[in-house]
Amino acid sequence: MKEREARVTDPMGNNNVAGSGPDNSHESVLLPEVLEALGPLDGACIVDGTFGAGGYSRAMLDRGAIVIGIDRDPTVLPFAEKLASEFGDRFTFIAGRFAELDSLVADKPVAGVVLDIGVSSMQLDQGERGFSFMRAGPLDMRMGREGTSAADLVNELDEAELANLIFAYGEERASRRIARAIVAARADTPITDTLALARLIEKTIGRKPGATHPATKTFQALRIAVNREFDELVGGLFAAERLLTEGGRLAVVTFHSLEDRIVKRFFDISKTSAPQSRHLPQVEAVESCWAPVRKPVKAGSAELARNPRARSATLRSGIRTLAPAREVSREGLGVPGFRRGAA
């Protein structure tokens, strides 16, 4: 019997997608470990909340899963269409934000959710997206191609705001020097391309042999601010908690310490519960919404040899308990704050 045509839905009506087409050049980080964390996949419905080039989705489909892919980046549609043509109605793509994944797939029984946080290698490799300080392109960084761009922030924030943003979201110790240099440079000419900003930062703080590029942390900070990535991460974690019922599994791959701290504290209810005073009546302990699947996982030497981008990746995972889902809250998660006007 002929397989039914798969669904590839785009509620934003974007059918003409720019960018590169499907290929196999983008390796999903910690793939075997993610699949193990999600448990038995044959017949299970899994939400790939950060679809990207579809690496996790393909691997799960190959193992018999039913997969719902979600992504707000319109350039991923060719990858989704390719999986739809191969796997029929076992694969569905929905254009949207993973912070809303529970409402996007509310009518389906879901056994697991996987989130791969941050920018993908596919986005880094597309110079026209403006994510990479190694490739020429407009200073954009918008995953959804709408809203405030990195160039807007670089050219409109005052010096104190820029320094605060770069320090809070990039953990860059030289944030004040970089902000001062940006403000001085843009007084003559607006900074609108990636290489111009990268060269300015390198000139400002120097570059040590063998060290990471001096623009790394500033570009990270701008990307996080442009895409409100911490808000998305917190929203996505709690959305998965609402969506999954007892026994459901959540696997989250992060790529820097700020993200990992949020995920770690989300899974550990002792970090997010209000502290109790010994001088007041003790409140009954709140039951945890998550039981650990395994300890945090880092990439091994074999994967690092194949894919150096995996060096900063960490996988954390949990199994949903019977405890009711919590209200969305940043309390106790250690979410970095950026406040306009802060010195």
UniProtKB/TrEMBL annotation:
<dbReference type="Pfam" id="PF01795">
    <property type="entry name" value="Methyltransf_5"/>
</dbReference>
<keyword id="KW-0808">Transferase</keyword>
<feature type="binding site">
    <location>
        <position position="98"/>
    </location>
    <ligand>
        <name>S-adenosyl-L-methionine</name>
    </ligand>
</feature>
<dbReference type="InterPro" id="IPR002903">
    <property type="entry name" value="RsmH"/>
</dbReference>
<dbReference type="InterPro" id="IPR029063">
    <property type="entry name" value="SAM-dependent_MTases_sf"/>
</dbReference>
<comment type="function">
    <text>Specifically methylates the N4 position of cytidine in position 1402 (C1402) of 16S rRNA.</text>
</comment>
<keyword id="KW-0698">rRNA processing</keyword>
<feature type="region of interest" description="Disordered">
    <location>
        <begin position="1"/>
        <end position="25"/>
    </location>
</feature>
<dbReference type="GO" id="GO:0005737">
    <property type="term" value="C:cytoplasm"/>
</dbReference>
<feature type="binding site">
    <location>
        <position position="123"/>
    </location>
    <ligand>
        <name>S-adenosyl-L-methionine</name>
    </ligand>
</feature>
<feature type="binding site">
    <location>
        <position position="71"/>
    </location>
    <ligand>
        <name>S-adenosyl-L-methionine</name>
    </ligand>
</feature>
<keyword id="KW-0489">Methyltransferase</keyword>
<comment type="similarity">
    <text>Belongs to the methyltransferase superfamily. RsmH family.</text>
</comment>
<feature type="binding site">
    <location>
        <position position="116"/>
    </location>
    <ligand>
        <name>S-adenosyl-L-methionine</name>
    </ligand>
</feature>
<feature type="binding site">
    <location>
        <begin position="54"/>
        <end position="56"/>
    </location>
    <ligand>
        <name>S-adenosyl-L-methionine</name>
    </ligand>
</feature>
<protein>
    <recommendedName>
        <fullName>Ribosomal RNA small subunit methyltransferase H</fullName>
        <ecNumber>2.1.1.199</ecNumber>
    </recommendedName>
</protein>
<dbReference type="GO" id="GO:0071424">
    <property type="term" value="F:rRNA (cytosine-N4-)-methyltransferase activity"/>
</dbReference>
<dbReference type="InterPro" id="IPR023397">
    <property type="entry name" value="SAM-dep_MeTrfase_MraW_recog"/>
</dbReference>
<keyword id="KW-0949">S-adenosyl-L-methionine</keyword>
<dbReference type="GO" id="GO:0070475">
    <property type="term" value="P:rRNA base methylation"/>
</dbReference>
<keyword id="KW-0963">Cytoplasm</keyword>
